[in-house]
Records
---
Amino acid sequence: MTDRYGVIGHPIGHSKSPVIHRLFAAQTGEDLSYEAFDVPPEALESRLRAFAGEGLRGLNVTVPHKEQVARLVDQLTDRAHLAGAVNTVTIAVDGRLDGDNTDGVGLLTDLATNLEVQLEDARILVLGAGGATRGIIPALLGSGPRDLVVANRTLERARALASHFERLGAIAACRFDELAGRRFDLVINATSAGLQGGVPPFPASMLTPETVCYDLSYAMADTPFVAWARSHGVQHAHQGWGMLVEQAAEAFFIWRGVRPDTQPVRAKLP
Ligand code: ATR
């Protein structure tokens, strides 16, 4: 029988997860279907439980549900617990829900393997201190950076995030204006400002032509952050398409025990 999987979010129409997972299934010969489900926040808890009864075997979770799903599942992996966010749910035959988070490993694979960015001993800056940042900090700290700085419009939020993760490694918090004149090897945009079409007042003096800029967001054209980085002479500015495919591959592996080849799938996206 064909196993059912899907992605939940609100809105969900833009999601590329169905395309990606169907390509993985075709490539690996796994017998599965994959659908997109629009689940509004008020229906999340009841829908999550209902999916098990409808024969779903697993779900990906996207905006705005990642943190709430972490509170609703029966069990969390260490990395999902640390992140306080779930992007992959496995549904057992008895209906038990296991939550995991593959965003961090997806980002690391894209950076280190696909883009060949040196993370060990690197000076890394993460812009933003919301849910997206929480998902990637454990993986970034595990890669052995020289410095890891989280900068945010609201300083208190960056400070709270830094103290939450400090037992995993050194992590500093600051405001955007405190970045002026500092230099970073890798700058990751994890703010949601691009969704409103803008770039917050990041000081361009923190960039060198060699700085790698990475936007967790992705779009058909350059995201505002990628366009901003390029306009300041950055040669290597990337959108998050690779991370999207890699986190999906990790979820596919958790569900099916088979690791798809991500390159042909990545090549079909912008
Ligand atoms: P997500 O799950 O996408 O991380 P979130 O938890 O709401 O969403 O976090 C959004 C992040 O983007 C926060 O760091 C937010 O900054 P604040 O903590 O100061 O709110 C940041 N952000 C969103 N819009 C922004 C803007 N216009 N300028 C600067 N930062 C912005």
---
Amino acid sequence: MRRTVIAGNWKMNMTPAETKAFIEELAPMVKGMDKCDIVLCVPAIDVPAAVEAAKGTNIKIGAENVHFKESGAYTGEISAKMLVAAGVEYVVVGHSERRQYFGETDQTVNLRTLAAVNAGLTAIVCVGETLEQRELGYTETLLKYQTKMALTGISKEQLKNIVVAYEPVWAIGTGVTATADQADEGNGYVRAAIAEVYGKDVAETVTVQYGGSMNDGNAAELLSKVNVDGGLIGGASLKTDKFTAIVKAAN
Ligand code: PEP
């Protein structure tokens, strides 16, 4: 009923030439693995090379951020309309690194989500607690708050263009993975928040990914959980063999 989405988040890695070579190597490896959507979210500079290399394959291309205005005096920013015109289908919104290093707030995450979805992109909206917040017992409250804030103004109909990624901040890029039960629980809080706003039946249709040191060794167990509908993968998405193994686990 829910689409599984395996998405790589390359962060600030790869040149356009490396992007082309990576996708040309990956495409035959994941050919026919169609039980999930396969997405690579790449740096903006790599988008044209990625879109070109992914043509005719089952790999979709995403961006790592989007601005909330359509155009104007926002030096260095890229609009949703520009991404769509370049062939992008997905965009990561509100990644914890953007929240931590670039002043992203729940309000701007919401604005970016609205801009993305209104332009026809699928937004991969990231939520997640820090270790301190977890230890203080705020995980459920925080995940529900972040989820509801990010989706403010998104209609029931538009939810089909929303993927939420539960990414505990303490598990991103650290090699520390949430246990499968912690991932299932966090994803469950996200789904419960969606149910509180849109109803249970609708919430059951929304793809909720887990992200945080997912790799070829732990993907199968994480993905076996009822609330885990895919993964947002950083480090392991930079190696074709590791990423393929995760896609395989999802299939
Ligand atoms: C991410 O960047 O969203 C992520 C989950 O990174 P990593 O897989 O490296 O922890």
